[in-house]
Amino acid sequence: MHTFYDRLIAFYRWILGLYPRRFREAYADEMLLVFQMQLDDTPSLDLWRSLGIMWRELRPLPVLLLNAHLRERHVNMEFDGEIRAAESDPQQLEQIYQLARRNDQLATFRNALIARYQASPDNVLLAAWYYRLQNGAEDAQKSTRPANWMIAVPLSIITGLIFWALSDVENLQVQGLVPHLLFWWSPIATISALIYMAVTAGARHVQVAVLGLSLLTAAAYSILASPAFGPDWATEQYLIIAAIHIPLLCWAALGIMALGKQSTHADRFAFLIKSIEVAIVAGLYLLAGMAFGGITVGMFAALSIELPEVLLRLIAAGGVGLIPVLAVATIYDPAASPAEQDFDQGLSKFIATMMRLLLPLTLAVLVIYLFVIPFNFMAPFENRDVLIVYNAMLFGIVGLLVGATPIQGNDLSPELQRVMRRAIIAVSALAVVVSIYALAAVMHRTLQGDLTLNRLTVIGWNAINIGILVSLIVTQLRIKPERWIEGLQTVFSRATIVYVAWTVVLLIVPPIVL
Fold it and tell me: What does the DSSP 8-state code read for residue 249?
């Protein structure tokens, strides 16, 4: 009976987790105490009495949740009008800031003030606040809230079960060419992550519905439009390209959810850094899951027991489905803006240090590689696999430069900043040389043959990444040395828009034009 009692309490705690965070902080403890008193006052806590108690609690739950979330959204302030009225009154502006702190709306205040400063850059008071917020001098606390596991775990289980249902890759295929799972895994995982972010932050539920429906529509469009290509080889090319690029579209949806309506270059760059951290944590979860799955299968094999395919798919696909939401919950706090996340401790610090240590190694490899190229100059012109390596290298270098760029320069000495800046410029310059060489090889193969969708995709991504690296170099050569970090963040934040735009083009245009 004691175990049954504990399970009822745990289930009610999970229900309380559905309420907005501010509501939970104010009322959750009292509601849990009242529920425990109801259980304690029940003479004999059998199944039927417990069901009666749960029915009384669950019956008004939808209305209570809706009202709580609507009140949460109504309480939120935008601060635009308040900041505009106080832009010449230091005391009033400080009071607005303190009000934002008390209501846990520092991100909204920060975005509104930065937007107002960008509209009035000559205002001395707004300029002082802008640099105070940008440089982290304000005493706003970094995000230290625990992950909302009461929401993350059920969403992960649901996602895993959906992955399991789609994991029969032999029978569930698009046009008999590509498994359905490759198209639907990222929208499904992203929708679960969006729900987690919305419930934890207590806002933007309509936006979750719009973004989720858009992602499902994009995946459905790719599948339904694929027959327009005619031959199986052309259809398979488009389906593979769509399956590769839909996750990038899902990443953009997470960015829209995290950044909101107003965002600065610093916010978008912070989201980039957190995206890298989430991806690395997901990889660590995957390694742990593979070890667990291998041990599980091995233990049964040692007893000469062969698990049926349906259970093997549950372990494999279902286990992978658990990872996305858990990775987001581990790293990201949806209640804070990307710029207000914690970048100074734990895994964040490790990843930043690792990326910076890889800079000189990458520079050395590129220098050696440029010396080796003349001895086998025609390799990428004749071998498609070499071109694939070059393109993967280019994406890897862009990711390395993003990860090595500091959020702020406070934790780096001026000497180290100068060395890092020069290393980043040098790596970018050498990568441009190698990338132009690879692009020339792709163009040569295209002129010798046909402009296939695969080649168009590679040419586009090559051109975009070369443009990003060239823009980075030019910006660093023109900008003042003390603003080099801001210059890097601006280039990378603008690059995200180009990435998403090219992804949308590749998904929508080919079925219509080609």
Answer: H
Tens-place pLDDT, residues 103-119: 656 767 777 777 777 67
Kindly state the helix (H) or strand (E) to which residue 179 belongs, with its residue range.
Answer: strand 178-179
Tell me the mean pLDDT in the region 395-415. Answer: 84
Percent of the chain with pLDDT over 90: 31
**Burial group, residue 121, by CB count within 10 angstroms (0-12, 13-18, 19+):** exposed
Distance CA 494, CA 464 (A): 12
In angstroms, the CA 100 to CA 97 distance is 5
pLDDT over threshold 90, residue 304 = no
pLDDT at 196: 93
* E strand or H helix at 3: helix 2-16
d(CA 42, CA 44): 6
CA distance 337 to 199: 15
CA distances from 299 to 40, 59, 210, 319, 423 (A): 44, 45, 45, 18, 50
Q: pLDDT category, 137, cuts 50, 70, 90?
A: very low
Report which of residues 339 and 279 the model is more confident about.
Answer: 279
Least confident of 96-110, 174-188, 249-263, 498-512: 96-110
pLDDT at 143: 46
Distance CA 206, CA 345 (A): 33
Dist CA 387 CA 405 (whole Å):
27
174 forms beta bridges with 178
Of the candidates 79, 77, 78, 66, the residue with the CA atom closest to the CA atom of residue 20: 66
What DSSP character marks residue 17?
T
d(CA 226, CA 230): 8
| Whole-angstrom distance, CA of residue 41 vs CA of residue 278 | 46
pLDDT given at position 374? 86
**Strand, helix or coil at 168?**
coil
Inter-residue contact 15 to 154 (CB < 8 Å)? no
- What is the pLDDT at residue 243? 93
Q: Residue 390 region, left (φ>0) first, then alpha (ψ -120 to 50), else beta?
A: alpha
Dist CA 268 CA 277 (whole Å): 14
Helices (H) and strands (E) in the chain, counts: 22, 2
Q: Does 279 have pLDDT greater than 70?
A: yes
| Of 427 and 146, more confident | 427
Give kind and range of the element (H or E) at residue 173.
strand 173-174
Q: What six digits make up the tokens of 233?
A: 């080889």
Q: By three-state DSSP, how is residue 79 classified?
A: coil
The CA distance from 460 to 482, in Å, is 33
CA distance 123 to 343: 31
Domain ranges within the chain, ordered by starting residue: 2-74, 76-134, 144-342, 343-514
